[in-house]
Amino acid sequence: MSMGGESTYGEGLSHGQRSLIMRSMKVCRVLRSSRLPTVRCAFALRLLAVGGALLAVAWPATALAHEHRSVGPYRFLVGWKVEPAYSDSLNAVQLFLTDASGNPVPGACNDLTVRVESGGKTSPPLRLRPVFNSPTECDAQVLPTRPGMYTFRFTGSIAGTPIDQSFTSSEHTFSNVEDASAIQFPAKDPTRGELAQRQDRLALREQAAAQAAQGAEQLAIAALVVAGVALLALLGLVAGRWWRPRSRSDVADAGEVAR
Question: Per the domain annotation, does 256 fall within a domain?
Answer without folding.
Answer: no
